[in-house]
Amino acid sequence: MRRPLLIEVEACGICGADVSDIERADPSLQPPRVPGHEVVGRVVALGEGAPSRWKLRQRVGVGRLGGHCNECDECRQAQFQLCRNQPLVGATCDDGYAEMMLARGTGLVSIPDEFDSVEAAPILCAGIATFNALKKWGAEAGDLIAVLGIGGLGHMALQYARKMGFKVAAVGHGQDVAEDALTLGAHLYIDTSEEDAARKLNAMGGAKAIITTIGNAEAVSSCGGTCPARQAGAAWCGQGPVARVGRSSRRRRAQFARIDHRHALRKRKNLDFGVLTGVRPKIETMPLKKASEAYRKMKPGDVKFRMVLTMKETRHAH
To answer: 99, 314 in Cβ contact below 8 A?
Structure first.
């Protein structure tokens, strides 16, 4: 598998999806797989076949999908998201928890100067997942959007929804995140430990869409019934694909889209939106040498809101 660019990593986010990559990795694989798929760094070497748009020392980002091959039948039909030879960064190829990594040019996105590398890293997964979920619904300014789960993904969804002009309801369990939810952009906070979220949303006329970032099917289902007939029902952003479930009369339908969606242009649009509106992830950082500690802190949700590894203390591997 050709990956003709060498990237010097500056920052790599630690994502919930890394849990599966790390703990379900093939134990016979030697050396072990290097995880990480929210990577920002600089191009330090261009191999044969590297696209001409990428230059030495250019700052670039890599997300979950490592780049289409431009050779298979799907790519020849411009169905790049269905590429047969596309690597899953951190899962089927080594990547971001490292000083250096190899990358495909088709999987890269340029990083705007307005973003620090540590700010940009989570946007390449948590950001694009929630941004695309909100864009898919066809909601209009003033529509009610509910965000279920105020964590690493949810805190991005709140900011995007507010900046897109929606009326934003944050749905969480307990008061510990209420103030954060309102600061991040929610117009109101619904505490499910004190009130029925579905009843509250229905009293407000029903949500145009629900962006849910949790895996509790019961909680998702209870809120999904608040959407008016023929309107979107819910969106999942988490470990794996972003799923959206809609409702039309009494029939439900499901549609799936990968986190990085079709190609790097989507990621760039998301970054440009952040430049225009000031949307930024709230992060904690740890140096690469403390990657294990950072991972252990992220896994139970003890991070507010995203964990990012930094490589400033490292030196060039070459």
So the answer is: yes
Helix, strand, or coil here: 6?
Answer: strand
Burial of 140 (0-12, 13-18, 19+ CB in 10 A): exposed
Q: How many residues does the chain have?
A: 318
**CA atoms of 214 and 108, how far apart (whole Å):** 28
pLDDT, tens only, 15-74: 999 998 999 888 888 888 999 999 999 999 999 888 889 999 999 999 998 899 989 999
CATH of region 126-257: 3.40.50.720
The rounded distance, in Å, linking the Cα atoms of 213 and 63 is 18
Cα Rg of the chain (Å, integer):
20
The CATH T-level fold of domain 5-111+282-310 is Quinone Oxidoreductase; Chain A, domain 1 (3.90.180)
Amino acid at the residue 138: G
Where in the chain is CATH 3.40.50.720?
A: 126-257
Delimiting residues of CATH 3.90.180.10 domain(s) in the chain: 5-111+282-310
Q: Are 271 and 296 in contact (CB under 8 A)?
A: no
Q: pLDDT below 50 — which residues of the chain?
A: 229-263, 314-318
CA nearest to 6, candidates 64, 69, 57? 57
